[in-house]
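Data availability excerpt. The first of two example chains:
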Amino acid sequence: MFLLARLFMIVPSVIAGWFVSKDDVSYWVVAFAIALVFIVLTIAFELYVHPRLRQRRQR
């Protein structure tokens, strides 16, 4: 389970590394916030954009 969590945090931690020093205390907080943004964007895409793209293909 721990390995799965680390795999999900790779991309947000790389992005957080661009803005926050790895030695900073808030590094993982920033990485977690970026991960939450990715999750919200994925859900929004699946709920709103993906069905509209599927309708266009069927026409």
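And the second chain:
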Amino acid sequence: MALTTYADIINAACARIGEEPVQDFDDDLGGGQSALLIYEETVDFNLGLQPSGFFFAREVRQLSKLSVAAPFTGFSHVFEVPQPAIGPPVYLTDDPSDPNRRYTSFILTANQVHAADNPLYAMVKFRPDPHRWTPTFRSATITALAGHLAFAIASDRGQRSDLLTLAYGTPQENFRGGMMRTALNEDAFANPAREIKADNNPLTIAWRS
């Protein structure tokens, strides 16, 4: 059985702790609404553990220019950060065809971008459907979710602690150990660090101009 929906992930976590699957996510009498809230919180937190964004949970979007907003910061344009998104943009660019180009002359305030150039684009993180997750991220998330549900459903602190340690490692690993470390390491191969251009600095640019 493929785990392709949020219901599949939640019920896989329930099976991990020996609980019956949730039948109705609109009715909280059976814990459906609570389980869905815990699912969303856990997934968003796990996606946030990769600052540059997991490769399956980030994409380039064009910023939407606000025609009625006053750019009180002195810039010419005000843009909205494209939604839905998790956290601030990973980076901005004025040329999405150049993967190394970064736009830095902007101010990010109140979930808006103030800048002098138009158009602009942003790499944003978002919450993808489970069918897009990697197997390593899916297993780590199901394990973490099972830990949270073990306490929410059965008030079992011991099982919660064991499962969260399995998912994230020890407290000293800052949620980047355990199964999540495998997911982060796998993603690192898809998001390699880009080479810093030594000539991309104000002095060199001024000398060449």
